[in-house]
């Protein structure tokens, strides 16, 4: 157990819908990363937050957004979902930008 | 931009034998970190080993070792005495040492099958 908790573990939803994925980082970790793992794109970095502020952005679609709350948990919001958004979404956390990041078990999103 | 390439989509090894997984990367940076992650069927991403680019000595963690060739931009993973539990997908990853982000850039992954 990495100490990073992601909910839900599985999510099935229809095209056009909106979902929210939640991540609770390890206790004391200020930095949260979101990654998407899909069959065609592999593992891709989406976005990073550090102590509530956006720190880095990858190839994140405009339909996707994220935030980190004062208690340091983070949410990834996916809207206007398409079939191609079906993927495994990982959250990782680390104490700061330089330390090792630990991954959660991921949320499997299926868009039907 | 940095890229990471794993040219072996699948590999297989006999239990107790040794296998080497390949990884190459492209970067103009001189200081960075390289990692190997293991993803078993449980989907959990597990850090196997890490290498700092400024260190010439190859990293070793028990049965896992790397061959880091900085000039060739090559970073291979050797698994000795392979065990059934080593069966998983393995990802090579790159992280800049500079800047203000610890984001990882991953290769496409190599699926390792271990035969009993």
Structure overview:
The complex is a heterodimer of chains A (112) and B (116). Chain A has strands at residues 5-7, 10-13, 19-24, 31-38, 42-50, 53-57, 64-68, 74-78, 87-94, 102-103, 107-111. Chain A is an all-beta fold. In chain A, strands 2, 4, 5, 6, 9, 10 and 11 form a 7-stranded mixed β-sheet that branches. A 4-stranded antiparallel β-sheet of chain A has the order 1-3-8-7, with no helix packed on it. The radius of gyration of chain A is 13 Å and the shape is globular. The N and C termini of chain A lie far apart (31 Å). The mean pLDDT of chain A is 95. Chain B has 116 residues and is mostly beta strands. Helices cover 0% and strands 52% of the residues of chain B. Chain B is built from no helices and 12 strands. Chain B is globular. Classes of the chains: A mainly beta (112), B mainly beta (116). The interface between A and B is medium-sized, with 26 and 18 residues.
């Amino acid at each position: 157990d990495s100490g990073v908790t992601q909910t839900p573990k599985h999510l099935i939803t229809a095209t056009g819908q909106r979902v929210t994925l939640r991540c609770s980082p390890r206790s004391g970790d200020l930095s949260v990363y979101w990654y998407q793992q899909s069959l065609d794109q592999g593992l891709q970095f989406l976005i990073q937050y550090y102590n509530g502020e956006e720190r880095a952005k990858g190839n994140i679609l405009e339909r996707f957004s994220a935030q980190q709350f004062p208690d340091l948990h983070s949410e990834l919001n996916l809207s206007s979902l398409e079939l191609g958004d079906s993927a495994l979404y990982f959250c990782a956390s680390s104490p700061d930008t330089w330390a090792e990041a630990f991954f959660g078990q991921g949320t499997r999103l299926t868009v039907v | 931009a940095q890229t990471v390439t794993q040219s072996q989509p699948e590999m297989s090894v006999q239990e107790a034998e040794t296998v080497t997984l390949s990884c190459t990367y492209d970067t103009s940076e001189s200081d960075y970190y390289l990692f190997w992650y293991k993803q078993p069927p449980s989907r959990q991403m597990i850090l196997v080993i890490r290498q700092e680019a400024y260190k010439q000595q190859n990293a070793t963690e028990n049965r896992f070792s790397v061959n880091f060739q900085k000039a060739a931009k090559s970073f291979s993973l050797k698994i000795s005495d392979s065990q059934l539990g080593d069966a998983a997908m393995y990802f090579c990853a790159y992280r800049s040492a500079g800047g203000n982000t610890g984001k990882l850039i991953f290769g496409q992954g190599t699926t390792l099958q271990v035969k009993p």
